[in-house]
Amino acid sequence: MTLADLSGVDDPGLPVEDISAAAGERTLRKVACLGGGHGLFATLRAARGAADHVTAVVTVADDGGSSGRMRRELGSLPPGDLRMALAALIRDTPRGHLWEKTLQHRFGGHGALAGHAVGNLILGGLTEVMGSSIAALDELAGLLGVRGRVVPMSPEPLDLEAEVQGLGDDPREVTAVRGQVAVASTIGQVRRVRLIPQDAPATDEAVQAILDADLVTLGPGSWFSSVIPHLLIPGIVDALVKTTATRVVIMNLVAESSETNGFSMERHIHMLVQHCPALRMDVVVVDERSVQSSRERRHLERAAERLGARVIYRDVREDDDRGRFTDRHSPSKLADVLREFGTVTGDSDREGDHHASHANDATVVDR
C-alpha cells in the first residue's frame, strides 16, 4: 500500500470486516481486556466490534526479542505486547491497515536495528520524550484514532519465574526457571509461576479500567506467561473482586505445546484458582468443539464453580474459508459472544444495570 492508494480515501472508521453491532443488537459501553500477546490481540479485535470503548490491560514481563533488547538497553517497559494491543485496536480501514502494518513491521538486515519492530521504537522514543509510558501510549492511540486505551498492568518491568518439573534426572524434581521466554519454551511441566518483585504495584489506569467496565475479560493466551500474571498483582485482583462488571474467562482453543502441554480445560481453571484463591469470575467461555464429551464438561463446570462461574459453550473458532477450523479465535464470532453481555443498541438506559436480563442468557451471574 502506498500513499497514492490512500489519496482521497474517506476514512470514517467503518470496519471492512463488519463485526460492529447492527441496529437492535446488544453492545457494551466499556470493556477491559486482560492478557498479552496473540491471545489478547484476538480478544481486542472482537471487543472493538462489540463495545464503545476498549481498554487493554497488558502484561509487562516479556524479556525476549526486540522487547527484551529495549528493556535491557533503556530500562523501559517491554513494548512488544503493548504495541500489539495498539495494533489490534486500530480502526479497520485502509489507513488503519497501513498503520497496523507499519507498527508491526520488523527491520531486516544484520545491523543494530535488525529484528526491532517499528512500533516498539516509536513507543520507546515517545516514552523518553514524554517521560511516561502511559502518556506515550495515549498519544499514539490518539494519533491512530483508537477508541480506547492500552495500559500496562504495572508501571515497572517484571520478571517471571516458574517452578518446572521434569527437567532433571528425577522427574519429580522441581527446577526454578526464570524469564518469560524461558518459561514459555520450557520442555518441562510448569507447576506454578511468580512475579519478581512479588509486591509489584498495579497501574492506577489498569485498576480504574476494571472498576469502570461493563465487561472484563481474562484470556485467552499463554496461560502462565500472559494470563496468570495478572492474578499475581494484588491491585488487579482487588479490582476484579470489587468491580460490578461481568467477569469473563475466555479459554484457549487447545492446550499449548509448551506451557500447558497435556492440560485439560479443567486443569486450566484449577491453575487460576491455585494461583489466586480469591479470584471470582462470572462466566467461562469455551469453544463448543474443544470440549465435547459430557464427562469432560461436567468436570470443567465443577472447576468453574470454584470461581463462582458458570460455563457457556459457543462456536468461537475461526475457519479458513474452506470449511477447515483453525486454532485461532474468530473476532466476529467472539464479538457476538461478548455482545450477549451488553444492552440493546439504542436503549435509553445505557447507563443502567449492565447485568440486565437477556432472553436466552443463562450466563449472567448477579452479585
From TrEMBL:
The keyword Hydrolase does not apply. The keyword Cytoplasm applies. It is found in: Cytoplasm. SUPFAM superfamilies: CofD-like. Keywords: Cytoplasm. It holds the Pfam family CofD. Signal peptide: none annotated. GO terms for biological process: regulation of cell shape. Residues 342-367 are annotated as: Disordered. Residues 347-367 have a biased composition (Basic and acidic residues). GO terms for cellular component: cytoplasm. One of its GO terms (molecular function) is LPPG:FO 2-phospho-L-lactate transferase activity. Belongs to the gluconeogenesis factor family. Required for morphogenesis under gluconeogenic growth conditions. NCBIfam families: CofD_related (TIGR01826). This is Putative gluconeogenesis factor. It comes from Corynebacterium terpenotabidum Y-11.
